[in-house]
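Input set for joint prediction.
Command: fold jointly, output tokens.
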Amino acid sequence: MTVDSVKLALETPDERQPFAELGMKDDEYQRVREILGRRPTSSELAIYSVMWSEHCSYKSSKVHLRQFGTKAPKSEALLVGMGENAGVVDIGDGWAATFKIESHNHPSYVEPHQGAATGVGGIVRDIMSMGARPIAVMDALRFGGATQPDTRRVLPGVVEGISHYGNCLGLPNIGGEVAFDPCYIGNPLVNALCVGLLRKDQIKLATAPGPGNKVVLFGARTGADGIGGASVLASATFEDESQAKRPAVQVGDPFMEKLLIECCLELYQADVVVGIQDLGAAGVSCATTELAAKGTGGMSVDLNLVPLRDPTLRPEEILMSESQERMMAVVTPDDIAAFMAICEKWDVPATVIGEVTDTGRLVMTWDGETIVDIPPGTAADDGPVYERPFHEPAGQAALNGDGPERLPRSSDLRETLLTLLGSPNLASKEWVTSQYDRYVRGNTVLAQPADAGMVRISEVMPGAEETTRGIALSTDGNGRYAKLDPYAGAQLALAEAYRNVAVTGATPLAVTNCLNFGSPEDPEVMWQFAEATRGLADACQILGVPVTGGNVSFYNQTGSDAIHPTPVVGVLGVIDDVAKRVRSGFTAPGLRVALLGETHEEFGGSEWAHVVHDHLGGLPPQADLIAERGLAAVLAAAAAEGLIEGSHDLSDGGLAIALAESCIAQGVGASVSLPIEDAFVGLFSETASRALVCVQPEAFDALAELCGRFDVPCYGLGTTGGTSLTVQDVFDIPVGELRDVHTGALPAIFG
Amino acid sequence: MSAARVGVVTFPGTLDDQDAARAVRLAGAEAVPLWHAERDLKGVDAVFLPGGFSYGDYLRCGAISRFAPLMEELVPAARDGLPVLGTCNGFQILCEAHLLPGALTRNQGLHYVCRDQRVQVVNADTAWTAEYETGQEIVLPVKHGEGRYVADARTLEALESEGRVVFRYLGGNPNGSLNDIAGITSEAGNVVGLMPHPEHAVEELTGAPSVDGRGFFTSILKKLVNA
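tokens >
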């Protein structure tokens, strides 16, 4: 079989090439020709097409994402910012944490189990490639309506995929979200987050310096998985072709990934790695171009040396394969023997496939012929950048004008609470989370249904200091809020994740995000994206938490129907003494219950409007970031002083749901009155910047004083105890009834 | 007096080894890492086979681990009375190695289950349960996809009549185990296997909302110190 070599390309300049089929635009193809001064070989075309795809190049989002850098608040904690595999933050006592969230949306629709599983695998390798031990995962999931038939196909598969892969890897799943809305029926969202731990002086970067150093491919062998996955699945909708493209989804092997984790950690410990990169989207293409571009600048690779699972693979396919559980390292010749010995100990295949050069060119050969000869930076960094046009959607003003004020409010608030509590978005997610191992590694302090997950820092790492610290993590996103106002919606997502971390007693430190949107080629979607990024960047600045990295997922749409814009925001926080963590809900009888924060009448995009009236209109709650910051400061100080016995943030469903969940948490009832006269507003409004806490009666004054110092309103609502949730003059509901309604909803749908 | 030494085995794909070692240390014993590929028990006084997905659960849970070089040392030592505890995947390995009868199959509900499970101590006379009382109710986490204990009728009857059922699930069987069996012991009472995870219930701060798992480790320690 002839190989499309550089020599052949020079001899056949007019050969027609399938750039369009590979998702490349005409002008992009012309640019490649200009860069190379000839037509690309088919292997070079494969590289450019995947590296310049939306998924790898961020070509439509880049101009907006820059704000996360230019508006970033000063943060002494930030050790590695955006642009690397994941951001790294200083968490004290010589330790650093690295975390990131990433989407695997389209594959999870095509093949829910493998799509979700490999989503977990991919983000875990990102964390590993920073030099860290992955210590926990969480997932933010969005599905179509809970009772829509396709949701019964997609949800169980996604949950099983995450469960199988994550559990097999031995990473505790400590939180996340599950939400339903018909807008996601053809485009479910599977956003996977991983956090890792490393010593501050141990950070690894994706770089290939030092001519003569060896390039090692290790982990699973390369097969036909996901060929074209990166560009095909991420650069166009696939409504009529999902059958045809099914093989494009990758298949994961968590056992190999577990071996890779332990192998990598031993390699780091032995200090035999100069640079490292995981193989994700665009596989060998991405790893070689990025490593070379960030290093000395050149690399030579013999593609025949890539170990194959399928010996019939062509070089183009090897370059595009997205086979899972692979890593690429740069190793000095002196360390190669030690490197290989460690891989052998862990039964991880490893092969030297090339070396670093100072030629400034990435050169690859196949059967002795040169098939790739490019400046690596042109593929890795100099992809196209688009200033896509955007404008406010035609119906936006009408949507905002159709507020929830006209909706009738039931006078039976007991019934309203139970209806909301048993609705799929607010119901207990135990059906999902009980399929995840939340205990493995023995460091889980808080996990679902707590507001944030928390793990203590206790890892056996040579040279590591003992510490009492812990980290807390939460993700949040509300597509309905963002649909009504993407600027405020993104801020509200950040505010809630930030608040979730704060109620555990931790101090929020840094942000990761996964921006899920429709097609960037639609100016109305692009407006949503521009507004959301602007809102998030502004909010990060005010809250003092920098964005450390993340991921953009476009083309979440079927035909012209895009999903609600869904920015999912993850916040990482630190608690100095993990023993002072605040548990979720009402933890004992006889405690005083207090509501922190002011309640306004805000029902736009609320769960009540959604569940009771199937209504979406008006404006979302106000994102008052100054209030949010004050609340977090109170919660951190109160936790450090040991004032708080239990807490819960207020969000979807308002005070009513927070009270109900707080009672259900430990089976402790409460008797409370409402902070404002209008019981309906008091119970169900979704005003942000609020939290529920319970304290020993004698600590109440100290709490109120603390709140005063930070200008946070503090309302004593009542006391915990008994077997019912009693709201004075409104209703009295046994905790058992609340629990049955809350936990029964998802099993009734999914079995 | 030197501390009792408890070996903690790591196979490729073992996951709870760090937790197992921590639980051993918290009880005051020395945790000795044992590697699957070495035929060396390092002179330990007892062995803990922790949970995980050894060899990716390929073929059948525990089926490949059974043939690990370390097992060539462990199996005869266990037959000679070495105390051995297997939890979750460790239990599966003990069954595959025929140190315990029966087998663990896919959960009846077909889903992986992670929950805090009420468990009854049925036999408090084994090497690993002496610090409990017969009939005592404890809470331990379960987390597995293949934990349904099955055995033929004669084996079940023997286990029951000989008092070799060590733990039974209470308040809802998480996996469809026959006779609600959560754990069993060998004839001599030195080998114990169970699906729940005592090592995840030894600290107030982390893991399950109980410290009921501590008894396993205090039991073995007392036995070894008094031996």
